[in-house]
Amino acid sequence: MSDPTHVAGTAVLDLEPGTTLGSWELVDLLGKGAMGRVYRARHVKLGREAAIKVLNPEYVARPDVVQRFFREARVVNEIDHEHIVEVTDFVEAPGIAYLVMELLEGASLRDLMKHRGRRYPPVKRIAGILRQVCDALEAAHAKGVIHRDLKPDNVFVAERDGADFAKVLDFGVARLLDGDGDDTSTMAGMILGTPHYMSPEQALGKPVGRDADIWAAGVVLYELLAGSVPFTAPSFVELAIAIREKPPAPLPKKTRRGERIPPWLAAVAARCLEKRVEDRYRTMAQLAQALAGPAKPSPWPKVIAGAGAAAALGVAVVAAVRLDVPRRAREATGSAVEWVRGAGAKVGMSPTPTPKSTPKPATATSTSTSTSTTAKSTPTPTATPTPTASPKSTLPTAPTPKSPAKPAVRAAAAKPPPQPTIELRVRSTPPGATVVRLDTGKRLGKTPLRLDLPRRAADVWLQVRLDGHAVVKFSADLRKDVVANVTLDREKRAKRARQ
User: Fold this and answer.
1) How many CB atoms sit inside 10 A of residue 262's CB?
2) pLDDT digit string, tens, across residues 206-258
3) Which region holds residue 163: left if phi is over 0, alpha if psi is between -120 and 50, else beta?
4) Which three-class secondary structure string do you get for the chain?
5) Cβ proximity of 16 and 39 under 8 Å
6) What is the pLDDT, as a whole number, of residue 182?
7) Nearest CA-CA partner of 445 in 457, 427, 461, 429
8) Distance (Å, rounded) from C-alpha 87 to C-alpha 167?
9) Domains, in order of start, for the chain
C-alpha cells in the first residue's frame, strides 16, 4: 500500500481514501453535493473520527464562495444548538478549503424515505423528527439566521438513548438577517437553495425571511407523507410559476407505509404551503406545537351535564312522593332514575353523596323496597307512603361503583426501579466553557455544570473548550461521582508553552 497523499499547497482534483489533510486521514467518502464532498476521517494521532467537508476545487479560487463556506462554521457555532451539526474547525490552504464536523451515525430523511411498507417511518415518528427540526430552526431564527436550504438530505437522524435525534445540516447558504452578507445572496452561476423546496418569494429571487424555512418544512412534511414533493415541472421557470400560482397536489389518503394520514396533520402541511407569508405559521415554535397534534377534549362538560340531569330528576322524585302522584307515574320516574344512573356510570359520574340529615343507606333502601312491594300486592289506600316519611329517604341508593384507583395502583407498582446515576460537576476558570462527551459527541452544557449521568462501569473522555483558550480533555469514571475544576489557558500562552 502506498503512503497517504499529503495535501499542501497544490490544487486537488480528487481526494481518495488514504489522503491526509493536516492531522486528518480520509477514510471513505460519505456523500457529494453541489459545493463539496463529505468524508469520514480519522485523527492521525488521537484516533478520533470526524466528518470532513471539502469544498470542490472549482470554487476554491473564488473568494466569495470560500467566505460563504467558512461562514457556515461561524453561524453554526453561534447558534450552538443540540439539533444542529457541530463544526469544530475550518482550514484554508493553497488549493483547498475544508470544515471539520462531528461524525454522525444514522441516516438522512432522504435515506429513510427509500424504505417501503412497514420499514417506512410511521406518522408519529415523522412528526417527532420534524418537531426537533423546528426546535433547531427556531434557535437559528432567534440568532437572525435563515437556513434557506431545508430538505430531507439536510436532516440527519441519529439515535440517542434509544430514540430519534435529528441534526440539521448544511448552513452553507444561510442568510444572516443582521446584514452580514448580501441580501439577495445570488452568486454568478449558482442558485442558492434547492428549487423544489423554495418558497414562492425565494423562487422569484425576492428577499426571504424565516417564512421561507416554514414553507420548506411544509414541503418536507408533505414529501414524507406523500412520497413526492407537492410541485414539479420540467424547468425551473415553470416550477417557479407553479410554486407561486398553483395549489399543491392533493395528499393521498395513506403514506407509503400504508398508514392513514390524519386530517389534522394534512392541515398542518397545507398551512405551511400557503402562498402568502402571513397565512403560514408565524414561527417555528408554532409549527412545532401544531406537529404535536390536536389537544384532547376535556371530559368535564359531559360529567357536568349528566350531574345536572340527575339533579333535575331527583327533584321530580321528591315532588312525586310529597304529592302522592299515581303509582304509574312514580314507576316511570323510577325508571328514569335508573336510566340516569347508567348514563352517569358511562361518563364516570360518582353517586350523589347523601346529606348528613338523611338516614343511613340501609334504612333508605328498606323504606324504598317496602313502599314498592306494598303498592304491588295490596290494593287498599293504606299502602301509600305516609306523609311523615322523609322525602329524600325514598330515593333508591345507587350501587357503589368500582374504585378507579386500583388500576392506577397496579400501574404504579409495575414501573421499573429508577436507574442509578452519578453526579457530574465541572467548573472552569474562566466559566462559560462547553463540556463535550467525546464517546458520543454530545454537548453536556456550559460551565459551571451539574448533571446526572447513568452509572456504568466505564471510563469516558470529556472535553472542555472555550473560544480563545486551549482545549482541555480529561477522563471520567462513571462508576462514581465526578468533580472537576479546570483552568483554561489563553490560546497564545498555550502556544508559547508548546514551543
Assistant:
1) 15
2) 888 899 999 999 999 999 999 999 999 999 999 999 999 999 999 999 999 99
3) beta
4) CCCCCECCCCCCCCCCCCCEECCEEEEEEEEECCCEEEEEEEECCCCCEEEEEEECHHHHCCHHHHHHHHHHHHHHHHHCCCCECCEEEEEEECCEEEEEECCCCEEEHHHHCCCCHHHCCCHHHHHHHHHHHHHHHHHHHHCCEECCCCCHHHEEEEEECCEEEEEECCCCCCEECCCCCCCCCCECCECCCCHHHCCHHHHCCCCCCHHHHHHHHHHHHHHHHHCCCCCCCCCHHHHHHHHHHCCCCCCCCECCCCCECCHHHHHHHHHHCCCCHHHCCCCHHHHHHHHCCCCCCCCHHHHHHHHHHHHHHHHHHHHHHHHCCCHHHHHHHHHHHHHHHHHHHHCCCCCCCCCCCCCCHHHHHHHHHHHHHHHHHCCCHHHCCCCCCCHHHHCCCCCCCCCCHHHHHHHHHCCCCCCCEEEEEEEEECCCCEEEECCCCEEEEECCEEEEEECCCCEEEEEEECCCECCEEEEEECCCCEEEEEECCEHHHHHHHHC
5) no
6) 41
7) 427
8) 12
9) 20-101 (3.30.200.20), 106-291 (1.10.510.10), 421-498 (2.60.40.1120)
CA max distance for the chain: 120
Contacts of 23 (CB under 8 A, 6+ apart): 43, 44, 45
Residue burial 212-228, b: 16+ Cβ < 10 Å; e: rest: bbbbbbbbbbbbbbbee
Model confidence at 271: pLDDT above 90: yes
Pairing of strands 434-437, 421-429: unpaired
**pLDDT at position 171, please?**
79
Question: Cα(317)–Cα(315) distance, rounded to whole angstroms?
Answer: 5
Tell me the catalytic residues. 149
**Chain CA centroid to CA 377, Å:** 70
**Residues, the chain:** 499
CA dihedral in degrees (48, 50, 55, 61; nearest 10)?
Answer: -30
Strand 421-429 to 482-487 pairing: parallel
Nearest CA to 146 out of 218, 207, 190 is that of 207
C-alpha cell at 305: 351535564
Reading the block at residue 16, the C-alpha cell is: 481518495
Percent of the chain predicted with pLDDT > 70: 67
> Residue 391: is the preceding peptide bond cis (ω within 30°)?
no
Using an 8 Å Cβ cutoff, are 400 and 344 in contact? no
Residue 81 has pLDDT above 60, yes or no: yes
Of the two residues 305 and 144, the one the predictor is more confident about is 144
Query: Which three cell numbers mark 181?
Result: 452578507
d(CA 274, CA 278): 8
